Amino acid sequence: MTSTQDIDLDVLAEETYSAVFSDICDQLGFHEQTALPGIAPIGGSGRIVGWARPFVARSVGEPPSRPYGNEIDFIDSLGPGDVPVGDGTSRPAAAWGELFSCAARGRGARGAVIDGYVRDVAKIRALGFPVSARGSRPTDSLGRVSLDATVASVHIGGTTVVAGDLIVADDDGVTVVPRDIADDVAHRALEKATTENMARQLLLDGGKLADVWERHGVM
């Protein structure tokens, strides 16, 4: 297996998509790698492809002595290729917003995936930083939830995300690729996407679906 350092995230974001990654995971026997419906693009633009940095937004009863301290530490620790992936289901407050997005982008993060709510959607969209979430709500997180980034994994949309897993999120939803198989899956996903492109053109040119399936084995 080649190193995950060989994976070109820009190429994957340009040429592949969550569905083709899900298909390859299925082929390799990993059948529970997609989040349930509901986590969708809500701000920014482009496909999210990068390495998971999990956190949990835990419900709290009052603001901490250091406001936003955990959030600041987490976001300042992000690096190129990272994707913050958060479980924000404990309380319906916005666990992500514009300034978090600005800081994350400045650190080289490739987007954020939140199983919960975000705010400042118009500003995030103008920034162009892709964020997938369950929805938006203007309610601040301060005094309602506090970010815990000490966790090694989180559950989002019914699937488990471990630190370092490959995240692929777009209009179809979220696919989570275990890091141990990420190189193999990425290689196969690129091949399958290329085959699907050929099949698409054959169909647009009038080819029969049955013939294309027989020839290329993609659907």
UniProtKB/TrEMBL annotation:
<feature type="binding site">
    <location>
        <position position="120"/>
    </location>
    <ligand>
        <name>Mg(2+)</name>
    </ligand>
</feature>
<dbReference type="Pfam" id="PF03737">
    <property type="entry name" value="RraA-like"/>
</dbReference>
<comment type="similarity">
    <text>Belongs to the class II aldolase/RraA-like family.</text>
</comment>
<comment type="function">
    <text>Catalyzes the aldol cleavage of 4-hydroxy-4-methyl-2-oxoglutarate (HMG) into 2 molecules of pyruvate. Also contains a secondary oxaloacetate (OAA) decarboxylase activity due to the common pyruvate enolate transition state formed following C-C bond cleavage in the retro-aldol and decarboxylation reactions.</text>
</comment>
<protein>
    <recommendedName>
        <fullName>Putative 4-hydroxy-4-methyl-2-oxoglutarate aldolase</fullName>
        <ecNumber>4.1.1.112</ecNumber>
        <ecNumber>4.1.3.17</ecNumber>
    </recommendedName>
</protein>
<dbReference type="GO" id="GO:0047443">
    <property type="term" value="F:4-hydroxy-4-methyl-2-oxoglutarate aldolase activity"/>
</dbReference>
<comment type="subunit">
    <text>Homotrimer.</text>
</comment>
<dbReference type="GO" id="GO:0008948">
    <property type="term" value="F:oxaloacetate decarboxylase activity"/>
</dbReference>
<dbReference type="InterPro" id="IPR005493">
    <property type="entry name" value="RraA/RraA-like"/>
</dbReference>
<feature type="binding site">
    <location>
        <position position="119"/>
    </location>
    <ligand>
        <name>substrate</name>
    </ligand>
</feature>
<dbReference type="GO" id="GO:0046872">
    <property type="term" value="F:metal ion binding"/>
</dbReference>
<dbReference type="InterPro" id="IPR036704">
    <property type="entry name" value="RraA/RraA-like_sf"/>
</dbReference>
<keyword id="KW-0479">Metal-binding</keyword>
<keyword id="KW-0460">Magnesium</keyword>
